């Protein structure tokens, strides 16, 4: 048997223990130990509830009240400690994950486009705005596309200029982008309006203005009723967009087996005294049109080939072609 007074004394003692234990709580483990000891199913508060039956029945209601009060005190204390611990965990997490906005960033260097790529893209975009599309062909080319189809038969002296790096009897590294004209015309019916950028190879010894590897952009326009006047207009638009306003233009006679007449195009900057040669060009030779199956009575066309290096050198005042290939960062970073 137990009396109500004895129960009160036990509860007071337990409350004393509880306060002491609360004062020592300092981590998750001790919070948990506290919960088990006081609030667990077999904890000290539950044990006391079980003893209510030992009391005189008239005291049991009062005992229940006292024990519920005790249970509430213990639960509230536990909840408070638990909340404190959670707050501390969050604060620590925030602290750990803090980003210091004042630290210097990690600087990753961006690459640069090579000046030749920039110039090629600029030229492409000028002609694309005029309605030309971009076509490409292989750098390793057959003799047929490189010579025969361009009206340069085997014994023709013009082959000597372009007779370059042979890979086997019938295949060579192309010395110009003109073979792309043929490849496109074979696949397309007129009208044809294309530009063909690409790398070319020649048997040149490297010096300030020659390089065995260089780049060209070919242009070809075939349609009914085209004349040199149309070529001149296209070039005037190009010159103004690429170099600027006020340039004069001059055609002088030249010779290419695949154009007739053939011209060399020169431009002169406003106020300058020197003419600068910018490209070879001409009306497509009817023999070339016939060879791809076009009706040369009906269609005419013109073509040109310009050197991308030369355009870049003229535009930026570069006097040595070798700088494009030596990868000197002081040079290529300027673009
Ligand atoms: N293919 C010629 C060269 O490389 C240039 C050119 C192209 C001339 C088209 C006329 C027409 O020199």
Protein architecture, described:
By secondary structure, the protein is of the alpha+beta class. The protein is about 45% helix and about 20% strand. The protein contains twelve helices and ten strands. It has helices spanning about 5-25, 30-40, 45-50, 55-95, 115-130, 145, 160, 180-185, 230-240, 285-290, 310-315, 330; strands spanning about 135, 140, 165-170, 170-175, 190-200, 215-225, 250-255, 260-270, 275-285, 300-305. The strands form two sheets. It has a seven-stranded mixed β-sheet with strand order 1-5-6-10-9-8-7, with helices on both faces. Strands 2-4-3 form a three-stranded antiparallel β-sheet. Helix 5 crosses helix 11. The longest helix has about 40 residues, at about 55-95. The radius of gyration is 45 Å and the shape is rod-shaped. It starts with a helix and ends with a helix. The model has no long low-confidence stretch (mean pLDDT about 90). The chain binds phenylalanine.
**First-residue to last-residue Cα separation:** 100 Å
Give a quick account of the main beta sheet: strands, pairing sense, barrel closure: 7 strands, mixed
Strand content: 15-25%
What shape does the CA trace take? Answer: rod-shaped
Q: Output the helix-strand order.
A: HHHHHEEHHEEHEEHEEEHEHH
| Unreliably modeled segments | none
